Amino acid sequence: FHAMPDLRNRAGAPTGAIYGVLNMLRRLHKDITADYSACVFDAKGKTFRDEVYPQYKANRPPMPDDLVAQIEPLHEAIRAMGWPLLIVEGVEADDVIGTLAREAQQHGVHTVVSTGDKDIAQLVNAQVTLVNTMSNETLDEAGVEKKFGVRPERMIDYLALIGDTVDNVPGVEKVGPKTAVKWLTQYQTLENLIRHAGDIGGVVGENLRKSLDWLPRARELLTIKCDVELPVKLTDLAHDKHDPAKLAELFDRFEFKHWRRELGEDSGQQSAVSGQQSAVSGQQSAVSGQRSAVSSQQSAVSGQPEAGTASPLTPHPSLPREYSTILTEQQLEEWLSRITAAQLVSVDTETTSLDPLQARLVGISFSVEPGHAAYLPLAHHYTGAPPQLDLAAVLAKLKPWLEDAHKAKLGQNLKYDKHVFANHGIRLSGIAHDTLLESYVLESHKPHDMDSLAERHLGVKTITYQEVAGKGASRIGFDQVAIERASEYAAEDADITLRLHQALYPRIDADARLAKLYRDIEMPVMEVLHAMERNGVLIDFRLLEVQSRELGAKMVELERAAHLQAGQPFNLNSPKQIQEILFDKNKLPVVKKTPSGAPSTDEDVLEQLALDYPLPKLILEYRGVAKLKSTYTDKLPRMVNPGTGRVHTNYAQAVAITGRLASNDPNLQNIPVRTAEGRRIREAFIAPHGSSIISADYSQIELRIMAHISQDANLLKAFAAGEDVHRATAAEIFGIDPGDVDAEQRRYAKVINFGLIYGMSAFGLAGQLGIERAAAQQYMDRYFTRYPGVAEYMRATRELAREQGYVETVFGRRLWLTEIRSSNGARRQGAERAAINAPMQGTAADLIK
Q: Are 399 and 614 in contact (CB under 8 A)?
């Protein structure tokens, strides 16, 4: 983008980045003969590295608008040229490339990576070569060593030492390439260098020792992940036949005249752009209404998976698409007959808002068989919009079918559509299936939006909402979208949902436990959540307004006290100013440092300092009060629905991989309770006259589930006898009678009971109890001696999780653990801890549902 001139077409749309990338791809295809090809882009959103280090890439400026505008058309053009396009969520493009290179190596296939990124030099070996198309540079193993001074297998160590400013990964302060090469030449590996850190003198030696805790994390961040779960196999990446008609349309739009002339006047002829023989083409659809996403279907030459193996991407058979728009009474009657006679109908709504209680209908789409769908526009308002059927009259005709519990309906997140129909006085009944919940039951750890599901299970790239309505400041409401375009998008939604159901439901139905979970828990719960969301909760907003003023006054008081304690005014919301006040001016002890070497002022540090010093305590208290004010007392009154006078949250059913619900807009699951101010906020949630609010909670539910799953005799005995389980555990660990257990011993036992079901280590337990690690290990050893069933459960669960990649709740919900076989020790141990806890947390979630 930055290297190319600012090319634009006559409409003023930027095209420079598109031209630059396509030109490189054309050149690659000409210079390198490849059996398999892929063009890899980063997915939107966060990756696992952001979880490891929240500051990862934090200093990157936002993408320029002129570049953003070119991404989607570039993707279109790349696919039209016949390149398989890969975008995998949760990882970076480098990780996808690394995984493909690893798979190719296992099949004895040589890999060429076209890149200018030095991080990818870590992948180079006898079978992997880098080519920088912009600089004509080629790097094999010798080339990497010549350029960087280290061999490819030491590149990660080299990068960890020098850091990566582009990705905001600090290295060792004042250590550049020369020092890094010198150290790695002398000590061979980063691990060996760390072991000999005490031998290195001078400022750089001191800086190295300061970074010892950080370096393993830096190495983790910079290591390319080569075991990503990909939606395709290597053999699926045979370069497909390009789409001359689509290329002609795109080159006309971009005004790439020379390339357009190469295609010739007959845009259906074989183009020089691809350079690929037509005999190796992917299947092309003859239906004119088929979108360009059809080119992502797999070619017959890619081969089939062996019997008994699951293919990560199961291409859907090419189906004719008959999408129609219902604009006349006759068309409505025809479709009403079809949906009334059908055994199962896929239904979807297009609306004015994402807020389910505010949304009004713009249109409805239906599908009764794969490839056949219709859109019924009802409220499109724009200049030149064709006449549409009357909304009230149409709903009066559809209402008997929509409310008939014996007419089976299917949808994607029908809880939302049920609200939309309710907004128009219709009680949607007969909900038989929901593809959102089908996906959640099968693969709780993966995205469940329709676009992702279609690509993952059908091999289809769907039209996105952004493509029809735009984005950012230029986004229009769906009621302003041209009906022709809206029909294509909305009918596809209904069609794809039906096809997804046909792909997903047989897999659920074939497993009795999953079928019961889906049929008897998730589907009925969806109806209950709809009722809860629709009812909402009554709040006393006047009481919240009074509390907001009181909290504001308290913030002023705390700020004044903090300034007095500090000896000068400072901004209590500025980490930098807090750092200067606490550590430079007041000389408080530094508890820990940030990766850059500065004293940390995070919450854990302030809590530790608050035990001995008044100023950190005041800062913490100020932060707590400020959060209560902004999150609850100020915000909740603004979220009262004017039509109902209540606050209506959304209960997300398909988010947490353990099966738990998530509340948002607003989050009503985390109303504070630990402080007096927090408890007062709960007082604002009230019942109407003549009613009461009841609080109900299971008693020690996860410990009870642990007793059930592990079948440990002592734990079962304690619960069966109705004993205080923490007191019973303390008696077992300390070898005393339950009656002799004091409060401190019971507290220890409680921490151990809950800590162990979360997979806590001796190190973590020592931190929780404030004791030596050796003492914590002794307590754990005694615990497992007294509760051998728990120890055996933990061992067997870790082993089973490694073997099958998931664990299960008592009800059969599968909790997938993607990192359980990771070569990264920290991630693997995290997955092992999750394997122990997830069955308990998940079973508790299933029980409450």
A: no
Tell me the two tokens of residue 387.
């006449």
| pLDDT in the model for residue 308 | 30
Q: In the numeric block, which tokens belong to residue 333?
A: 């009657």
* Cis geometry, peptide bond prior to residue 317 (ω within 30 degrees of 0): no
What is the spatial distance between Cα 18 and Cα 22, in angstroms, rounded to a whole number? Answer: 6
CA-to-CA separations, 466 to 5, 15, 85, 457, 486, in angstroms, rounded: 27, 19, 19, 22, 12
Phi, psi of 775 (to 5 degrees): -65, -40
Task: Give the Cα separation of 68 and 248 in Å (integer).
Answer: 23
CB 375 within 8 A of CB 323: yes
Burial bucket for residue 656 (CB in 10 Å: 0-12, 13-18, 19+): middle
One-letter identity of residue 317: P
Could you give phi then psi for residue 513, rounded to 5 degrees? -70, -45
**What pLDDT is attached to residue 672?**
78
In whole angstroms, what is the distance from residue 370 CA to residue 19 CA? Answer: 38
Query: So what's the pLDDT on residue 348?
Result: 98
Encoding tokens for residue 749?
């036992």
Distance, CA of 3 to CA of 502 (rounded, Å): 48
Q: Which long-range contacts (CB under 8 A, 24 or more apart) does 41-44 make?
A: 41/71, 41/75, 41/85, 41/86, 41/87, 41/93, 42/87, 42/92, 42/93, 43/87, 43/88, 43/89, 43/90, 43/91, 44/89
pLDDT value of position 307 = 28
Could you tell me which residues are beta bridge partners of residue 808? Answer: 814
The first and second tokens of residue 277, run together, are 């023989």
Q: How far is CA 429 from CA 344, 401, 418, 426, 758, in A?
A: 13, 9, 8, 9, 41
Give the residue ranges of the chain where pLDDT is below 70.
Answer: 239, 265-320
Strand 646-647 and strand 537-539: the pairing is antiparallel
Name, in order, each residue with C-beta under 8 angstroms of 182's C-beta and a sequence gap of 6 or more.
none
Residue 27 φ then ψ, to 5°: -65, -40
pLDDT attached to residue 306: 29
Token pair recorded at residue 457: 């299970």
Which residue is listed with tokens 């190190």? Answer: 763
DSSP code for 308: T
Burial of 62 (0-12, 13-18, 19+ CB in 10 A): exposed
Q: What are the percentages of helix, strand and coil residues in the chain, rounded to 5?
A: 50, 10, 40
- Residue 553 and residue 648: Cα distance in Å, rounded? 29
Residue 329 and residue 299: Cα distance in Å, rounded? Answer: 43
Cα dist from 454 to 324, 449, 497, 506, whole Å: 21, 9, 8, 16
The sign of the torsion formed by the CA atoms of 131, 132, 136, 140 equals: negative
Do residues 427 and 414 touch, judged by C-beta distance below 8 A?
no
Please state, in angstroms and rounded to a whole number, the distance separating the CA atoms of residues 42 and 89: 8
> pTM for this one?
0.62
Question: What per-residue confidence (pLDDT) applies to 284?
Answer: 26
Per the CB < 8 A criterion, the answer to whether 555 and 562 are in contact is no
Beta-carbon contacts of 308 under 8 Å, excluding residues fewer than 6 positions away, are none
Amino acid at 99: T
